[in-house]
Amino acid sequence: SLVGETSKVVYPIRERIADVMSLIEVNIDYPEYRDIEEASYALVISEVDYINAEIKKLINQGRQGQIIKEGIKVAIVGAPNVGKSSLLNALLKEDKAIVTDIAGTTRDVVEGEINLHGLRLLLLDTAGIRESADKIESIGIEKTKKSIENADLVIYVKDAENVGKEDEFADLIKDKKVITVYNKGDLVSKKDPNRLYISALTNDIGALEKAIAKVVGVDEESYLRPSLNNARQLALLRKAYEELETAKQEAIDEVAIDLVSVSLQQAFFTIKEILGENVDNDLSKEIFSRFCVGK
């Protein structure tokens, strides 16, 4: 259950859903009360849009809170010998990965951790993907694919001197959040202004560090703002969002209003679950606290 400041960000959503739900129930059960606002489809659509905009905000803030609390996994990927291990060492400011000019040196995933502007980054250096008869290197390549799958962010390293060289990463990273960097930028005299150049060897990686902070998107307020940042809470918020979207679609389709109310009730119960309240089907308390009816 939620306590203190965190519950304050969720409770207004609970109340707003209860307002709409109670209005619909009063319209159905007490049609003789003429001075009560009509629970129209337009009102349901408008209210759901407002509530879901607030829920979306909470989900985004929760994700930021999760990043601050748990950190993010960053996979450093690229073809063999583009400087991935050198970049890992530059970010860590220590020699953790073995660096040679022999392609295939990194055979396993190397983990390192840094704190970047208050963000905890778990760095994964990965083996370059290529066809290999070496069994140990092949296992490393499979681990690379798994690391990409599990990463929150991928740093895609390319050779600034050989930008046209094809590799097999395009398909693997197409659905990921990616920062593409061109390493060995110190060896390139004419630079493309649209590319992010670094030199891992000379520790010239400031532009990349700024890009990571920007892409992750955690602002200073996130460190102070109360948020729902555990997986269960965020999953319940997403569930409530979908249940409200169902209610909205039913209102658009002009499904019987009592059925629209059922979808709203499901969202209401989900929000109550986040707050740690008892979930029961008796809505009379919500109705009578808002309307003087049936007394």
Structure commentary:
This protein has 295 residues and is of the alpha/beta class. The chain has 2 domains: 4-68 and 224-288, tRNA modification GTPase MnmE domain 2 (Four Helix Bundle (Hemerythrin (Met), subunit A), Up-down Bundle), CATH 1.20.120; 70-221, Rossmann fold (3-Layer(aba) Sandwich). It is 48% helix and 12% strand. The chain has 9 helices and 6 strands, in the order H-H-E-H-E-E-H-E-H-E-E-H-H-H-H. It has a 6-stranded mixed β-sheet, sandwiched between helices. Helix 5 links the parallel strand 4 and strand 5. Helix 1 (4-29) runs antiparallel to helix 8. The longest helix has 30 residues, at 41-70. The model is unreliable at 97-110 and 128-137 (pLDDT under 50).
The gist of it:
The protein is 48% helix and 12% strand. By secondary structure, it is α/β, with parallel strands linked by helices.
Second CATH tier, the architecture of the largest domain? 3-Layer(aba) Sandwich
Mean pLDDT: 80
Number of domains: 2
Oligomer: single chain
Tally of individual helices: 9
- Name the beta content range: 5-15%
Rg on CA atoms, Å: 26 Å
What is the strand arrangement across the widest sheet?
Answer: 2-3-1-4-5-6
How many beta-strand elements? Answer: 6
How far do the termini sit from each other? 34 Å
**Helix content range of the residues, please?**
40-55%
CATH fold description of the largest domain: Rossmann fold
Q: Keywords, please?
A:
6 strands, Four Helix Bundle (Hemerythrin (Met), subunit A), alpha/beta, elongated, 9 helices, 295 residues, Rossmann fold, 6-stranded mixed sheet, single chain
